[in-house]
Design brief:
alpha/beta, Rossmann fold, GMP Synthetase, Chain A, domain 3
Length: 497
């Protein structure tokens, strides 16, 4: 056991004790954070426009500051991009995190000097909670790989701009830099497949102990390693003991990832985004991710089925309920105010406050009024796949709206690692599981408004090739589980078997 791993345990115990104390006072801390944010930002253009100096509580804040998405906040962000100071937060942000997905193309999410520290601290705390609970710290002795975007940043009026994962690369603690892979030069490669080959070359003969990234891209890394060496990952890296993941639901990828490794191992789920590091898994023994309530962010919640109402009811942490699907709204020390991040969550514990991510607000199907969400389709598919001992590589779902006397239905595009013997029977079982999960979908089936779902089998590497075709292969990009239109479905037609 190295000095580093020995020191890690008491350090972890000390900090985790503080994290637990903070979690016990989360509601009170949230109210303090709101007042602190308002006070600091009262001098800004946004603060003056919304009379921050006069706001004393959450109700007044909700009355004065409407919920905004990026498009609604964009006029303020454009002023920041133009070089103006004191617009959303005092001074200017240190970074813009570039991300895609809006009607106007690229989003520029501000990151300040204090908000980036919270990103790093949350990632650290996730590892420390693991060490404190399990006593396992040997992974700090080996090599760690963080599959991320390029750290090369551009400048917009002296504000460094790039992908969040690339920005974070510049803030990896010094005690990890000697253990970190890949090299800076490899990380700077923009083309994902070229970069992946370089990562494999750099790492296949190293003593890897921790691997972190988005599950589908970790799987691509594993596939390339197996292809190069002819060995399973667990054989190639015998001391590989911990996988850190986030960005998409882990369960659809779990079976294949563990099969590639050749054994199961411990995992830590995180919930980071350009807008903030919202939650992390603090326990291997309890469901859900600990909400990061003392990190310069104020959280509000709106029932997901009300988020598009004219004036939806916004509640603070004190009023949330278990197992209710909420849209997550944040205000932060990066200058985001009542900002709809687009994710939905539900609480699985209120003491402490733990959440699971249930999907994206824009990723749903309600072409017929069913409002099917990601959590439900993942549940249905994985339940039946597990029952039949099948492995799923990737999938997405879209509505098929009949234009004549034929039936409308949900079309599932599935890339199987191992296929069912009877696809029709498998499809019906998945349909039944979804009907159990969503009563509105069940009503539509019972009323003959919808026919049971149909599965279209896709060829191997279909989703990789699709992402490549739209220039979104690698990095933090992922395939939506659900679409309320046929755009992705139409693009996938060429890959159907």
């Amino acid at each position: 056991m190295s000095v580093k791993s020995i020191i890690a345990k008491p350090f972890a115990n000390f900090l985790v004790s503080a994290i637990q104390k903070e979690a016990n006072h989360a509601v009170a801390k949230q109210e303090c954070i709101l007042q602190d944010l308002l006070t600091q930002a009262s001098i800004t253009a946004f603060g003056k426009d919304h009379a921050f100096e006069q706001i004393t509580n959450h109700k007044e804040f909700a009355d004065a500051v409407p919920i905004r998405d990026y498009e609604m906040l964009k006029p303020y962000i454009e002023r920041v991009k133009a070089g103006e100071q004191h617009i959303l937060w005092p001074g200017k942000p240190v970074y813009f995190a570039k991300t895609s997905g809006t009607t106007s193309g690229v989003k520029y999410i501000p990151i300040t000097s204090i908000s980036i520290k919270e990103h790093i601290k949350a990632a650290r705390n996730a590892l420390l909670c693991y060490i404190a609970e399990t006593g396992k710290s040997n992974f700090v002795n080996g090599k760690m790989i963080f599959l991320s975007g390029s750290p090369v940043l551009e400048s917009i009026n002296d504000i460094y701009t790039g992908r969040l994962s690339g920005i974070v690369n510049h803030h990896v603690p010094k005690y990890l830099t000697k253990n970190r892979l890949p090299s800076y030069e490899t990380n700077c490669i923009e083309d994902w497949e070229t970069k992946l080959d370089a990562i494999v070359k750099e790492t296949h003969n190293q003593e890897m102990t921790l691997i972190s990234g988005i599950p589908p891209w970790i799987q691509m890394y594993f596939d390339r390693l197996v292809q190069k060496t002819g060995k399973r990952i667990g054989e190639l890296f015998p001391h590989f003991s911990l996988m850190v993941h986030g960005g998409v639901a882990f369960e659809p990828y779990k079976a294949k990832l563990f099969d590639s490794i050749g054994r199961s191992l411990d995992t830590i789920e995180t919930f980071p985004a350009s807008e903030g590091f919202f939650a992390f898994q603090d326990s291997q023994n309890h469901e859900g991710l600990l909400l990061n309530t003392n990190a310069g962010m104020y959280f509000e919640f709106v029932r997901a089925n009300e988020i598009f109402d004219t004036n939806p009811r916004r509640i603070g942490l004190a009023e949330v309920e278990l197992n209710v699907n909420y849209a997550l709204i944040i205000s932060s020390n990066a200058g985001l105010w009542a900002y709809n991040i687009g994710d939905t969550v539900k609480f699985v514990s209120l003491n402490p406050y733990r959440i699971v991510v249930t999907g994206r607000i824009k990723h749903f199907i309600s072409a017929f009024g069913e409002h099917v969400i990601s959590e439900e389709v993942e549940y249905a598919l994985l339940k039946i796949a597990e029952r039949q001992q099948l492995k799923i590589t990737e999938f997405t779902v879209a509505p098929f709206i009949a234009s004549n006397d034929s039936d409308s239905y949900h079309e599932w595009f599935v890339e199987f690692e191992s296929e069912p013997h009877d696809l029709q029977a498998f499809s019906l079982e998945v349909d039944e599981a979804l009907r159990e999960k969503n009563i509105y979908y069940d009503d539509l089936i019972r009323g003959n408004i919808l026919a049971p779902l149909k599965i279209s089998r896709l060829r191997k590497n279909a989703f990789i090739d699709y992402m490549k075709s739209i220039g979104k292969l690698g990095g933090q990009n992922k395939v939506p589980r659900l679409s309320n239109d046929r755009n992705i479905a139409d693009a996938l037609q060429q890959f159907i078997l």
